[in-house]
């Protein structure tokens, strides 16, 4: 209990009233929905139904606070606006996945101990839990859509700011950095032999690699040779290419079909919710999938080559 109060005080002391307000509004939305549709036999309680609704609201808010504690200390996902829109959306999803069954369980227990004397159907059972879970899941989904729409402009602004910062990092030459055992300078000067499942092979300097594209059972190696763009085709898989290039931190997977050399990325473009990498020399745009965006960001922050 003391941990809960300390967490609440921490929110208020750090000026995070927005989170508390969001939890109160979300809980109020669910209480109003229950008041309108009167599940759990609430229509049998006359004026006492409002007392039960207030109690259910308190339970819901309390469990929201507990969920925040679970996210912070167990899942290791503290609330943070500095980690970007993608992190916030992922954290909100985790919040709903944890909070919804906990709230359903809390309401089922309240129904069993406080609301079963007039309504026999409120006795705790698996059926009652599933029924309550379905109701709360629907309410959570609806309130989640509301908050997503309400904060859409804020998320978009945060994403654009992230893209701007990443583009600054890409365009600014960084000082010499040491990799695990070898300097980036020596890695860039290395000659690389890429082989497929047949006798074909491609030899190139790692700094001249632009990107690799998967096409069925083949991969296209797009690279520079004597200053000109060249494409070689090998019979291989992206997994094999990824394993071969594992020791080169500037090579990262941006999409299930693409491996990209960050040193050859001219600009990151965000348009209509999608992110693309504009490649130097060929001016191709490679898509960045949601699942790969975090590792692309991490790779850019970890090492960017000029």
Radius of gyration, in angstroms, nearest whole number: 27 Å
What topology, given as strand order, has the largest sheet?
5-4-3-7-6
Strand percent estimate? 15-25%
Q: Helical content, roughly?
A: 40-55%
Can you tell me the residue ranges where pLDDT is under 50 for at least 5 consecutive residues?
11-15, 174-181
**Count of helical segments?**
9
What's the topology here?
Elements: H1 2-13, H2 17-37, H3 48-73, H4 85-114, H5 126-150, H6 152-171, H7 184-188, E1 191-195, E2 201-205, E3 209-215, E4 218-225, E5 228-235, H8 238-244, E6 251-255, E7 258-261, E8 265-271, E9 274-279, E10 285-288, H9 290-302
Helix pairs in contact: 2-3, 2-5, 3-4, 4-5
Structure in a nutshell:
This protein has helices at residues 2-13, 17-37, 48-73, 85-114, 126-150, 152-171, 184-188, 238-244, 290-302; strands at 191-195, 201-205, 209-215, 218-225, 228-235, 251-255, 258-261, 265-271, 274-279, 285-288. With 306 residues, the protein is of the alpha+beta class.
